[in-house]
Specification:
By secondary structure, the chain is an alpha+beta fold. It is built from 2 helices and 6 strands. The protein is elongated and about 85 Å long.
Length: about 180
Amino acid sequence: MASDCGEPVVEQRAESRSSKTVGRGHWLVYVVLAILGGLLTFVGARAQQKATDDAVFRKLTDEYCAAWSTGNADAPAKFYDKSNGLIFYDVAPFSYGNWAQYHDEVQKYFLDGAHIIKLTAGKDLRVSRRGLIAWTTVPMHFASTDKSGKTQEMDLRYTGIWEKHGATWLLVHEHISAPLPGN
């Protein structure tokens, strides 16, 4: 069968199918490129968020250590959520049931008898974040000199659970422990 132009109709249909296939192929390439672009954007954003979180929590941790190093439990109070029912574990005693108890007991047992206190965070700070909750782990070093001149030093393990309240990160739980002697 021939068209008015003398060309077979079969060839026109073959060309028409071929151009549709090429058009679909281009569409598929565009979709794949768009998906890859979105994934790269997501990965880049996550990397940027991680870098920002690391810097934010490095600053918070260093400020936290400086506040405790003042020897006054009022100084680090700004880092803690004051809600009742929050548990804070320290080296001694076993635990505190809220910030007010933590503040008073640490002041009495650790800070009042101290002449000099120095708490420093190690370099190996690790930060994990899921939305408005973040947890940090870092080795710390505690050094003190009491009013009689006796010195004490210990390495500590620190874990802090932070919750974002508006623009502020607050500790809602922390765990401080010391390895057994010889470890």
